[in-house]
Every structure is written in structure tokens, then in C-alpha cells.
Amino acid sequence: MKKVLIATLTIAALSMGISELFGQQLPQFTQYMFNDYMINPAVAGTHNYYQIRMNNRYQWVGVPDAPLTNTLSVYGPHGSKDMGFGGYLFSDITGPTSRMGALFTYAYNLQIHDNGMRLSGGISLGGLMFRADASKFDYAENFDMNDPALFTGTKTKFTPDASIGVLCYTTQYFFGASVHQLFGQRLYRTILPREAYQDTIYGINKLRQHYMLSGGVFLMLNRDYDIEPSVLFKYMINAPVQIDLNAKVTYRKQFWGGLSLRWQDGISVLLGYNYDQKYMFGYSFDFSLTEIRKHNAGSHEIMIGVLFDKLK
User: Fold this and answer.
1) Residues 34 and 280 sit within 8 Å (Cβ to Cβ)
2) Of 52, 41, 45, residue with least CA distance to 84
3) Using CA atoms, how far apart are residues 160 and 182, in angstroms rounded to an integer?
4) pLDDT digits (tens, 9 = 90+) for 48-77
5) What is the Cα–Cα distance from 209 to 183, expressed in whole angstroms?
6) Which DSSP category does 141 fall into?
7) Distance between CA atoms of 251 and 147, rounded to whole angstroms?
8) Residue 108 in contact with residue 136, Cβ under 8 Å?
9) Whether the predicted model's global pTM rises above the 0.90 cut
């Protein structure tokens, strides 16, 4: 049983792509405020133009087989009706495990108050492909590779996926809620024997629902400077709540800089530039506050965006 436990902990840590065994399963982004559609499908259609966002995250640089995440999203409104559409592709690779998928979104919004407050609801449907190459796992030196409790081949699994969300917003503030990996389905039943699964593998081969709450305000300091403080709460059953606190300052709608604090995890610095109100470039650097900082050179994230002409 001890051998099974060692293998299981290795598989679980790599499969989740994070430092805590029972932590969040979804990819992590620092610049989510520039692509909030990724955390809430209700965002689709809330702007009066289409936009493309590409996010590339290189986590824990210097650590072998560290997480590498890439996403590409497109979303925007219907030309004449209060609805929106969108879609995104994602790839999340962590050593011998990877997740690739696509989701497509429909959203509808309506005005709920005379002050311009609107409410939007959205749903995303699609699927993901999970792949685990057990031949690339690094086990303890005394581990018996012939142990029947271990799989040594490559496992590939396609499964449907979905997320839902609501968003209440005005031109001055917003707050929303969303649920991801809505179906909570199991990926595999045969990685380890049933008794080992019950004892040690809880959470590894089942997609858990992730609950997110977000909110923020837009404040005009003067004719040159705007500031946008925001917060994001993320929760998965049997995992600690993750809290992101952010503040972004923009100069003349062109240059921005900001700080982000991921509670009990790390601090991030954000920089960016908006050219001609159509092309966006963003960069962030994460410095970990946990023990893993001793073994890596930080995390880097790049964002590129394109805004198209207004439809409304």
C-alpha cells in the first residue's frame, strides 16, 4: 500500500499541475481581468464590439516539466439583439499530463435598472481531452515498476465540459459568479485498484466543480488616470479558497501598471500598453511566497488582444 501511495501522490500532483495535492484543477492566470470571459461566460456580449484574446502562461520557470498554459478566445455581441457569442480553445500541459479543449458560449443580457445596470447570463458547452503518459512519471528509486497497481501506458480520455455564469454590471462596477467543470465527471476508474482509489486518489481522476466570485469598480482619478481595484474568489470542494486582490492604474487609456496579490501564494507585477484603442499587449511576472520560490525563477504571462469595430 505504501508503494501505491507514493505513485498516487506523484500522479495527483502532476495531474493538477499545482503545488498542493488537493488544490484547484483549473489553469491559473494572473491577467484574467483582461480576459474575464475566461472566468465567466456571462461576459460574452456585454461589450459592443468583438475581441480576440490570447494568453500564454509559463509557470515556475526553471522547474522541469512546469505547467505551460495557452488559451485563445473570441467573443462579442449580436449586432442588434441583447445577446452575445464566444468561444475559446485551451491547452494546459504539466509534464506527462495535458488537457486540451474547446468551449462555445451563448449569453443574454438585459437592463434591470434605470441607472444603466444590466444583468447577463451565459453558458458554455464543449469538451476536453485529458492525456496522461505514465511512462514519463518519475517514481521513487525503490518503486517496483512491475507493481500491478500501476499503469505504465498512455491514457487518453475525451469528456464533455460546461460552465455557467451570471454578471451584474454598469459602467462603474461589476460583480459576477460562475461555475466551471459543471458536470463533475470521472475521467478514469482503472488507474489504481478500487481500494487504493478510496484511500488515496480522491480528487485526481474526477473533474471537480470550481466556483468563482468576482467584483470590481472603475474609478476616474482625473483626466489622465483611472484605477480599477478588483477581487476574485475561487473555490473547489476539499480545497482551500484562493483569493486574488488586484489594483490596476491606467494612464490616458494607453499605458497600465498594477499589482496582484494571490493570498498565501504570491505577488504579481502587471504592465501593458493599448495601441490606438485596438491592440493590447500585457505582461505579468509572478513571484511566489511559498517554498517553491527556492526552486524556480518565477512565472511569466503574456497577453495579446485585438479589438474590432463597434457593432452597437
Assistant:
1) yes
2) 45
3) 10
4) 999 999 999 999 888 888 889 999 999 999
5) 7
6) T
7) 61
8) no
9) no
Relative to beta strand 97-111, strand 255-262 is: unpaired
310 Cβ neighbours under 8 A, 6+ residues apart? 48, 49
Q: 281-311 pLDDT, tens per residue? A: 999 999 988 888 788 888 999 999 999 998 8
Q: What is the DSSP string of 109-132?
A: EEE-STTS-EEEEEEEEEEEEEEE
Q: Which residues contact 139 (CB under 8 A, 6 or more apart)?
A: 6, 7, 10, 145
Domains and CATH numbers, the chain: 2-310 (2.40.160.40)
Q: In Å, what is the CA distance from 224 to each residue of 9, 252, 254, 256?
A: 52, 5, 10, 11
**Of 154, 103, 122, the residue nearest 44 (C-alpha):** 122
Question: How far is residue 250 from each of residues 51, 94, 256, 270, measured CA to CA in Å?
Answer: 20, 34, 4, 11
- C-alpha 54, offset from chain centre: 13
